[in-house]
Structures are given as C-alpha cells and as structure tokens.
Specification:
By secondary structure, the protein is an alpha/beta fold. It contains 7 helices and 10 strands.
C-alpha cells in the first residue's frame, strides 16, 4: 500500500482528485468504458469536488456505482448516500450511467450489475472504527463469498454519521444498510483511499500497522496490489 501524507485535507483533496483524474484519462485513452465505485461521506468531498472540475475526462464513457446505502430511508431523502453523491458529483458531470442502491434494488440485483464487467477504480474511505463501506468490526468477513449484503450497523458507524453532521440524533440513523463486501471492493484494478481528519487517526494506524483481520476491516487494503492511501497531518498522526 502506497501512503501519501499532505499538510491538510484541502491539499489532500486536491492531490487525490488530480490523481483520480489522471487515472481516468489514462484508462479512457486505452479502453472504451471505465467502471467506478464511489464512497459517499463528507471525508470524500474535497476529492470529488476537485475531480468534477478536472479537464479532459469523457464522463459519457464512465459508469458509476456506490458502495453502501441505508435501509429504511425513502428515495430522495437527503441523508441517503445516493443523494449525497448526486449533489457532490453525479449532477455536475455528464455520466454515461449511474447505478444507485435505490429502494427496491436487492443485494442480488446490485451484485449482478457489478459483475457485468470488471471494476476499474474504487474511491473509498476508512470509518472511525476501521470499517470499509459498512463492513464493521468485529463481524466483517474479509473473505465473504457474497458481493453485496444486508448488514446491521455498528454503534460506532451510526455515531459517526451524527458526528459528521449527516443526522441530528443517533436515533435518527438507520440500523441497517446494504453494503458491498470487502472482497467485492478489493476486486478492482485500482483503489484510491481518502482519509482526512483527526477522528480517523486510530483507524488509520490500525489499517497500516495491525495484523490483517476483522478487528480492523481496513487492514484488508494491504492485500491489494495497487492501493494508495491519502492522509493529512491529522489522520496520519499515529502512523509510525
């Protein structure tokens, strides 16, 4: 895993966005389509805002997915991850196609869409408890045979949504979600993992230094042959 550290989250976002844009241009120069999976979280905002103004990307040849979604919120609810991605990125670029985890789309249906062709790029983060997507410790299966599944959300993951300002109260945060599994995320050619902020420092340290296992699902990133971890001064504070 390649680790890059920047002075602050703004510079982190600029560089991660520029690197993503360069990767998209490179791939689109040699293949007809690019298929991408996006995380939906405030930690990704600076990166995606940078990406959406990048020049020379033929977004009409890009198909986008996202990696998790709440169960129980109505379509169009502003807290839904699909809505966040629309507002932050999808509504700003002429995407060829976007496949969203809308109400009524089952895990099996979404898994079929993902399996239709290889995934080129995943843009993801790490949760405060070390989760990837909504694969929470200690129950995450790093060798899950499924691609997409229904999960119960850990308290730490739900509290993070309140701390991030996505919900006013813990009791407002849904208790279940649909998530891509760890193997599904790792089954992509390139991973860009964007993790700013002091709240993520302990999880980042564990992801980089702890034994690979479900106690910190993000440790599984070290299994991937081409993963870049983007950190700022705060999130890298505990990394030796």
């Amino acid at each position: 895993m390649t680790v890059k550290v920047f002075p602050d989250r703004q510079e982190l976002g600029r560089q991660a966005g520029d690197d993503l844009a360069a990767e998209l241009r490179r791939r689109l120069s040699s293949q007809d389509l690019v298929r991408m999976i996006f995380a939906s979280a405030p930690s990704q905002r600076e990166t995606l805002e940078r990406l959406r103004v990048a020049k020379g990307i033929d977004w009409r040849r890009v198909t986008a997915f996202h990696m998790d979604e709440y169960v129980g919120l109505p379509a169009g609810a502003p807290q839904r991850f699909a809505e966040w991605l629309k507002v932050t990125l999808f509504d700003h670029v002429p995407l060829g196609r976007s496949h969203l985890l809308e109400p009524g789309v089952t895990p099996d249906q979404y898994a079929e869409l993902l399996a239709a062709a290889p995934i080129d790029v995943v843009v993801l983060g790490i949760g405060v408890n070390g989760h990837l997507a909504f694969n929470d410790p200690p129950d995450a299966d790093l060798d899950d045979p499924q691609s997409v599944r229904l999960v119960d959300l850990a308290l730490a993951s739900r509290q993070q949504q309140v701390d991030d300002g996505c919900f006013d109260r813990l009791e407002d945060v849904p208790t279940q979600a649909v998530t891509l599994t760890v193997p599904r995320l790792l089954d992509a050619a390139r991973l860009f993992c964007v993790v700013p902020g002091a709240a993520k420092a302990d999880a980042v340290r564990a992801a980089v230094q702890d034994p690979i296992g479900p106690a910190c699902p993000a440790t599984a990133l070290r299994r991937h042959a081409d993963c870049t971890l983007y950190l700022d001064k705060e999130s890298s504070a505990h990394v030796r």
